[in-house]
Amino acid sequence: MKSIVVYASRHGCTEKVAYLIRNILGDNTDLINIEKINLTNVDSYNNVIIGGSIHKGSIQESVQKFCSNNLDTLLRKNVGLFLCCAMEDKYEEQFNGAFPESLREKAIVKEYFGYEIDYERLGFFEKIIMKKVAGIRENKFKLNKENIERLAHFFDDK
């Protein structure tokens, strides 16, 4: 079955996760960064995995637009949703705000993958926000590879 991982990544964490998912699923999986490529049609895919990260309280606008522009088609597919975010205690609230309710209900798997904060990749104001809002003052690499593998394996035989 043909799969696609559609994602947006600001500082590389979500992109890293997308590549990990594709590596698990294998060669029959396409990978599209919708910040760079305008994907307008997912009809040829059986499985659509969508992910992004939270910045300033919401997921990337490109992920939101992709979901809303393709919602009717996505509701007929095997869909997986994932989110990378540093505010672990607000994950569920952020997840609910990131994806349309009908898509969340339809998804066969929904996962939180944790986060990576690489201060070298952050802008000046992003560093201030990380320190004040999240209380993170140094590099942190807290991806949950078990959750990444669990999501990918939902699509092994689909």
Structure description:
38% of the residues lie in helices and 25% in strands. β1, α1 and β2 form a beta-alpha-beta unit. The protein is globular and about 45 Å long. The model has no long low-confidence stretch (mean pLDDT 87). α1 crosses α7. It is of the alpha/beta class and 158 residues long. It has a single domain, classed as 3-Layer(aba) Sandwich (Rossmann fold). The chain starts with a strand and ends in a 5-residue tail after the last helix.
Low-confidence stretches: none
Distance between the ends: 6 Å
Number of strands: 8
Give the count of helical stretches.
7
Largest sheet: 6 strands, mixed
Radius of gyration from CA coordinates = 15 Å
**What percent of residues adopt helix (DSSP H or I)?**
25-40%
**Which outline best applies?**
globular
Structural class: alpha/beta
- How much strand content do the residues show? 25-35%
CATH topology: Rossmann fold
CATH H-tier superfamily? Flavodoxin domain
> Can you identify the CATH class?
Alpha Beta
From N to C, what is the helix and strand string?
Answer: EHEEEHHEHHEEHEH
Number of domains: 1
Give average pLDDT, whole number. 87
CATH A-level architecture: 3-Layer(aba) Sandwich
Write the layout of secondary structure elements.
Blueprint: E1 3-7, H1 13-25, E2 29-33, E3 47-55, E4 58-59, H2 61-69, H3 71-74, E5 78-84, H4 91-98, H5 101-106, E6 109-112, E7 114-117, H6 124-134, E8 140-143, H7 145-153
Parallel strand pairs: 1-2, 1-3, 3-5, 5-6
Antiparallel strand pairs: 3-4, 7-8
Helix pairs in contact: 1-7
